[in-house]
Amino acid sequence: MKILEERILKDGAVRPGNVLKVDCFLNHQMDISLFQEMGKEWKRLFEGVNINKILTIEASGIGIASIVSTYFGNVPVVFAKKSESLNVDGEVYRTKVESFTKKRVYDVFVSKKYLSPDDHILIIDDFLANGAALNGLIDLVTSAGATVEGIGIAIEKGFQPGGDLIRSKGVHLESLAIVDKLDAETGEIAFRH
Amino acid sequence: MKILEERILKDGAVRPGNVLKVDCFLNHQMDISLFQEMGKEWKRLFEGVNINKILTIEASGIGIASIVSTYFGNVPVVFAKKSESLNVDGEVYRTKVESFTKKRVYDVFVSKKYLSPDDHILIIDDFLANGAALNGLIDLVTSAGATVEGIGIAIEKGFQPGGDLIRSKGVHLESLAIVDKLDAETGEIAFRH
Predict the structure, then answer these.
(1) Interface membership of B135 toward A (CB under 8 Å)
(2) Closest chain A residue to B22 measured between Cα atoms?
(3) Nearest neighbour of B30 by CB, restricted to A27, A59, A77
(4) By CA distance, what is B100's nearest residue in A?
(5) pLDDT tens-place string over residues B131-161
(6) Better-scored residue on pLDDT, A192 or B84
(7) Which of A85, A166, B176, B184 is the most buried (most CB within 10 A)?
(8) CA distance linking residue A141 with residue A143, whole number of Å
(9) 3-state SS string over chain B?
(10) By the 8 A CB rule, do B114 and A29 touch?
């Protein structure tokens, strides 16, 4: 998606360890107009797909998923939570996710009330690298007997294995920008086309 | 706000310890159409107020704030983060918040890049009880020399001191539903009008 790539080139910053900082428009400060363009693009890419719910994971996915919902008939958005809270009682679907950026393993869960075999899910998230969070979300959907109809990712790190692993399962994955190279010394960012 | 109160009565559940569970439409599964009505209402309540940025806190505030932004000219939405991440470098404004539901103290921070003395901030959050999170957000805005132009809260627990404390500071606070009584035994929920 051209405007996302241009925005990454303009405002993104490369840090050692293959970190791409885009917190000025994607995952700390959020550009809602950009999210609307992303929503329109995913609507085009998933045109005709039966989607009745969007699933994402806290925290960075929530803003994107909420705006995207407005392009899919305002379907409910469920966000998977990362730690137990006193406000979530009852039964939950639960899985474990290893965080690339935070270097730790955490529990991820969704209340069983909000995923059912009738659900046709579009998963939305900001980043795809090793696929840990995404595989966790797929696991939650599968546990509920629901269907993953598609996955929309803002930025995929194409040099890490997550995207290929997910595509090899036959899942319809649409990453709006795929970064094939990050060079922290020169600041170079190269996209796949 | 009538439709929010009706929704709380229909789908909310009272739990011991003054807990109001609204996770089926507000803070786990999110009703985007309801958030749009809330956005319209806050736009009406803050009509004419100069707002160039929305500030919220992860995770439950993010979806609401993102939709609300679309009624305020798509102003940027910044969400305060609750724990240090490798993806946030550089200088941050930082404060401490005690969580009512999680019974612990955590650090809350915003990158200094995203709050400045030029900012006229609308703070958005899902709940106001003791005001701990909200006071933390106000503290961050004040630290940056920015101005809190208003605060929009979905559900205020009127029997807890947060709302009165904030109003006593002269801040323009608009809670869309104020709950004055929760009875876990009978399930009663009473609103202030």
Answers:
(1) no
(2) A87
(3) A77
(4) A86
(5) 999 999 999 999 999 999 999 999 999 999 9
(6) A192
(7) A166
(8) 5
(9) CHHHHHHHHHHCEEECCCEEECCCCCCCEECHHHHHHHHHHHHHHCCCCCCCEEEEECCHHHHHHHHHHCCCCCCCEEEEECCCCCCCCCCEEEEEEECCCCCCEEEEEEEHHHCCCCCEEEEEEEEECCCHHHHHHHHHHHHCCCEEEEEEEEEEECCCCHHHHHHHCCCCEEEEEEEEEECCCCCCEEECC
(10) yes
Q: A75-96: per-residue pLDDT in tens?
A: 999 999 987 554 555 689 999 8
pLDDT computed for residue A104 by the predictor: 80
What one-letter code names the amino acid at A74? N
Closest approach of A96 to chain B, Cα-based (Å): 18
Flag whether residue A111 sits within 8 Å of chain B, measured between CB atoms: yes
pTM, whole model, 2 decimals? 0.95
Say how many C-beta atoms besides its own lie within 10 A of residue B177's C-beta: 26
Question: Distance between CA B125 and CA B88 in Å, rounded?
Answer: 22
Q: Does B74 touch chain A (CB under 8 A)?
A: yes
Task: With CA atoms as reference, report the closest residue to A136 among A167, A109, A176, A102.
Answer: A109
Nearest C-alpha neighbor of A91 from the set A73, A72, A111, A105 = A111
